[in-house]
Batch of 2 targets.
Target 1
Amino acid sequence: MLQLAPHYNALMKTPLPQTTDGSVTLQPLLQLSAAELSRWLKDRGFQPWYAKAIRRWILFKRAESFESMSDLPKQLREQLTAAFQPLASEVTKSLLASDGTRKLLLKMWDGEDIECVMIPDHDRRTACISTQVGCGMACVFCASGLNGVMRNLAPGEILEQLVRLRNLLPAGERLSHIVVMGMGEPLANLDNLLAALEDATAKDGLGIGARHITISTVGLPIKIRKLAESGKQYSLAVSLHAPTEELRSKIVPTSDKMGLHNILQAADDYFKRTGRQVTFEYVVLRDINDRPLEANQLATLLKGRGAHINLIPFNEVEGLPYRRPTDERLNRFVEILREAGLFVHVRKRKGSDINAACGQLRRQSHIEKQAVT
Ligand code: SAH
């Protein structure tokens, strides 16, 4: 039986790795912090500084087995192999879209599926990662939230998505950007996300610049402030989706607790504190929030903030009644915002032939499983 750090389970809020018969399986190595791994090594008579070397092998040198860590003593490699898995998830689907977007469905040790995506664009290699299994925010148009949230992902599980995606790149290529826009509400799992991003930004980790990392949130004001206080230079994107409280509570039913005014205030504070411009995301849904009325209301709401708005034409989700806006409506919407002096960007559609939008692949996979059983 493996000895786990006593606070392990409470800290991660995730189940211990168990097989279906209840026995504990090999522990995912990335689940241990460098300090915990040092302790494990020390307890077995190895130099604690090997912890850095082991993590570097996985995070930097793309090792997928302990055996391949050629500069570690053989005995250590054997003991590591008997106790840990270097990468604990299983890639159960890997889909390549015609535009080069690659989506992975990963099975975690408790059998839960999560999604992550690699989006190549010119010299950028952007990883889109998940922070939770499912999502508790219940945005009416989003596939991730259809069955609620199952659990938070541990720091190692968040990190592992980046490693898996990076390992698909040709040797010498690295991830340049991260968008935390996969399944889940990142700020509802902020501590674990911040822990994972420490390794993502570390020079001997994945070496990705903090300014190249965007965290997208439904808008939890208290957590936005906590993120600002972390002192990091992460970019923040706030999913607004509606210009009025009334419409927002229909599209984002958990919105009532947040309050548009509070969200905007927290976004302003984030800018003041970090100097980082906040982007507002707005999923454009036909006949729901895409009329000139909403464009004018949005312009009034955001005027004077020097705001950047990212319009996301809805990616249609099977079984949901929402539709993409017509080109004509979308163009008019953009025009009104630009005339009001706002910076508008319309998000390009990526990986549409592989269900690349939030939670779609996992949902598709569940539908297929249900059809089989
Ligand atoms: N919970 C975070 C991350 C969600 S994913 C948040 O709310 O910001 C990132 C963005 O994609 C969010 O703005 C989300 O609302 C949007 N999104 C989710 N499903 C979508 C779909 N089917 N089409 C277009 N945008 C979608």
Target 2
Amino acid sequence: MNKKGLLVIVSGPSGAGKGTVVSELIKNTSYALSTSITTRQAREGEIDGVHYFFRNTQEFETMIKKNELLEYAEFCGNYYGTPIFYVEEQLKQGKNVILEIEVQGALQVKERYKDAILIFLTPPNITELRNRLEKRATETLEKINMRMKRAREEIKLIDKYDYIVINNIVEEAVNNINNIVESEKMSAKRHIDLINTFLEGVEQ
Ligand code: 5GP
């Protein structure tokens, strides 16, 4: 049996509801959620080390040079990245790890971990995306427009993903992600070692 944990990546445009879905997802499960590093300003209520590790550009670039990041990307004027150490440790211990990251970073991870599961979360439609961003009121109009433009770019890369989940009702989206992960655990390609065990047990 495969003892290493699964690496699950949830991406999707700002306003798709990734944060809400992922926090519901980890409530009753044993997923390890990686905390990212960013150079963006903390929003009201965000805590350093909980929502993100907030660092300045120089500190971030030092981490890049020291190869301390599993992936990183520039998103709407700021850096975002995943610390490599935590992810590798959790996977080694057999835990399933979730990364909530944008598309460029997700594709970098897939290069490195071919068996990572890439899930793209979308809102039911594009109008809803803008509504959600405006309702959230954490960004200026200029930034909302930047994020909408970026959403367009991200949506173009959906075909690089393994699954799409539409986030209309949070509970349903969470169930769908859980179902995807449960099915992936049974996928034949993840159990190649079983073939040898079976062959050894079958008489020639
Ligand atoms: P926000 O500023 O809304 O918190 O995040 C902006 C975007 O950056 C979101 O799409 C979020 O998923 C993504 N993001 C958060 N952490 C990381 C990370 O570590 N790496 C990458 N590549 N993207 C991230």
